[in-house]
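Risk register update: the risk of archive-format incompatibility is retired. Evidence:
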Amino acid sequence: MRTKLAFLCDDSNQFLVRSMVAELREAGYEVDVYPMGINAYGFIKSEHKIFIVYMDGFSLESEKFLGSIDVAMADKKKERRLYLIGTDEDLKQANLNIDHTLITHSFRRPVDMESVLKELSIINPSYTYDNSLKISEDTSQEQGRKTILIVDDDDIYLRNIEGWFTDEYKVYTAASVTSALSLLKKVSIDLILLDYEMPLLSGLDFLRILRSEPATEKIPIIFLTAKDDKEIILEILKEEPTGYLLKTTAPILLKHNIKNFFDGKELWWKAN
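Archived output:
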């Protein structure tokens, strides 16, 4: 039986919130998303065992909500765990409104989902973190090489393209957007090769998430996809990626394009 988890936030449409919720579901949790304005006392009485409160700025509304959580969580009849996510100021204000003994753990934004999932795994030990992520072996020969992250949910294509580039570059692969986001917390990437169509979060979702964060907004992204539909191409180019290449491109031409990119030369087919 999957553990039920409640995720509370001001705006469930934020890309970062959607990404976190998708990764929690991918990890095997049954996640329900609720607005902060919900009646906390009746809500805490629900069947959920885990509560995650994602704070994005502190307001009078969130102060009232956290105060009601403090009252509701004080009932010890049910085993419940409360996790807070926010900036230092958010967490400071939350601790003024909630008895610190009721808070299982606090995470500072920008949050590392690996840390969240590892903390949650203490009460969900059957979960093994990030089995869709692969990092190539870090040998002394790879030091100083350019790094490429390839994001694609097609495992066969992912292995093929990894093989085309490992002789010249340090290659990281991820089979989902959520795995790629976790990896970017750990390593520095010089270029991302990104598929368009993936489950849960698409390549465009991923690009928008990266562009919304100062730490990742300048990472070059080249879409590498089987999609050659004009409307989809225009939708992608509207977001101004570094380039757009088709998966049907011959390996030798694909490698030539990536070399041109790192050499500062023109792509065979670039976004602009």
